Each structure stands twice: as structure tokens, then as C-alpha cells.
């Protein structure tokens, strides 16, 4: 049973102006680069498996949605794996990329009741090699949300027992149109959405919601998608 997650709060300074739609990709490259300094992290980075971490967008967000060269911003990286957190915290200041990590602080958060999950970075759901769109149906998105976090949770803790029902009883779309995000530099585009989930009070549902808080909802969490906050 997941009882706590670990969070690295980092401050960064960008080497150039970066639009908000490209900043998740820039941070992902820095985090990935930090893993080259440790053989276990390097192997983990190249392994095709759930990564069990997610990170936020930097803040504060500028009014024109362009992060400025030379200014200081903060971002959060969460994970269930304490060893991973300790190593990434150690190597982030050495990482090379479009920003310099100036400082990092590690905190631990224990399981608490969650009433709602609200995504701060878009969720990405792939349907037949295309990003989910409203015309694909809210039912399909709900199913993917539940199945994805159930798989992550059971990969982390195979003893978890969950009934055949969703861990949330209501979903609200928070954006009027798809959110366009770049990744792999500017070579690829993802269309994401922001949502709010009302979480069921059952212990198993709370466990899935807490895991989602720690590692992100749906896909491409290693690129910073699906990062949530909890409302209690």
C-alpha cells in the first residue's frame, strides 16, 4: 500500500526565453540529462516501463506565457521511489539543458483523504495513435483514466485489490479547446486537456487517487503531463 510520496522542489534559471508550450519538454530534457551521472538511473531511463514520476510546469507563469531568460522559477518533481528521488536531487544541479537547476529540496508527503484531483498540466490519452478529443467520448476517457492508474498502482503494489468500478464518480473538463504542447523539441505536437475528478471516499479509490497525485494521470508523465493537485 502506498503510504507516502516524495517531492523535489527545484529552482531553475532559463538560458533563453521559452514559450509555455515548450517548457515541459525543456524540463524533461534536464531531468533526463541528470540521469547520465548514475548507471542505475541511466539504465532506468532507457527501460520501457512505468517511470513512477511526474513534474509540474515552472511557476510563476508569465502573463504572455513566455518564461524569461535569466529569471528564477520553481517546479516540483514527485515520485514514489525514495532512492530515485535522492539520486535525482543529487544530480539535477549537474544537468545540462535549456536551464540551470540552482537548488533542490526534498520533502515527503503522507497519504491523506482526497476529495478532488485537479490537473495543472494537461493529460494525454492516446487513441489509435491520436490524442483523445471530445468526439471520442467522455466514457472512453474515464475508462482510460481508471485503467491507467490501476495498472500503475498494481505494478507498484501487486497486492492491491480494486472492485470493477471507477475510482472517481464525476469528471469535469476544464478547457474549452485542446491544449497544444510541443515535445521532442518542436518536432512533435500533443493535444491535451485539463480535468477535475471527484474521488470516491472508499479506501481503494483513495489509494488510486494518491498514486495519481504521486506519479501523474494517464500518459507521458515523464514529460510532465498529468501532474495534479489534491483538494481535500
TrEMBL record:
Give the protein's recorded name.
CRISPR-associated protein Cas6
Highest classification ranks of the organism: Bacteria, Bacillati, Bacillota, Clostridia, Eubacteriales
Amino acid at each position: 500500500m502506498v503510504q507516502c510520496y516524495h517531492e523535489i522542489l527545484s529552482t531553475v534559471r532559463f538560458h533563453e526565453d521559452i514559450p509555455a508550450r515548450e517548457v515541459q519538454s525543456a524540463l524533461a530534457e534536464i531531468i533526463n540529462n541528470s540521469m547520465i551521472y548514475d548507471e542505475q538511473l541511466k539504465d532506468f531511463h532507457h527501460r520501457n516501463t512505468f517511470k513512477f514520476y511526474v513534474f509540474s510546469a515552472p511557476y510563476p507563469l508569465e502573463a504572455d506565457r513566455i518564461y524569461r531568460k535569466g529569471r528564477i522559477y520553481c517546479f516540483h518533481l514527485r515520485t514514489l521511489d525514495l532512492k530515485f528521488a535522492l539520486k535525482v536531487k543529487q544530480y539535477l544541479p549537474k544537468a545540462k539543458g535549456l536551464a540551470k537547476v540552482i537548488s533542490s529540496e526534498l520533502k515527503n508527503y503522507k497519504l491523506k483523504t482526497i476529495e478532488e484531483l485537479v490537473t495543472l498540466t494537461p493529460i494525454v490519452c492516446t487513441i489509435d495513435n491520436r490524442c483523445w478529443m471530445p468526439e471520442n467520448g467522455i466514457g472512453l476517457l474515464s475508462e482510460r483514466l481508471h485503467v491507467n492508474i490501476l495498472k500503475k498502482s498494481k505494478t507498484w503494489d501487486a497486492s492491491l485489490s480494486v472492485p470493477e468500478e471507477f475510482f472517481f464518480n464525476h469528471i469535469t473538463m476544464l478547457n474549452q479547446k485542446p491544449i497544444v504542447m510541443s515535445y521532442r523539441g518542436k518536432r512533435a505536437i500533443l493535444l491535451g486537456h485539463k480535468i477535475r475528478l471527484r474521488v470516491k471516499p472508499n479506501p481503494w479509490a483513495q489509494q488510486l487517487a494518491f498514486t495519481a497525485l504521486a506519479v501523474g494521470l494517464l500518459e507521458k508523465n515523464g514529460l510532465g503531463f498529468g501532474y495534479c493537485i489534491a483538494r481535500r
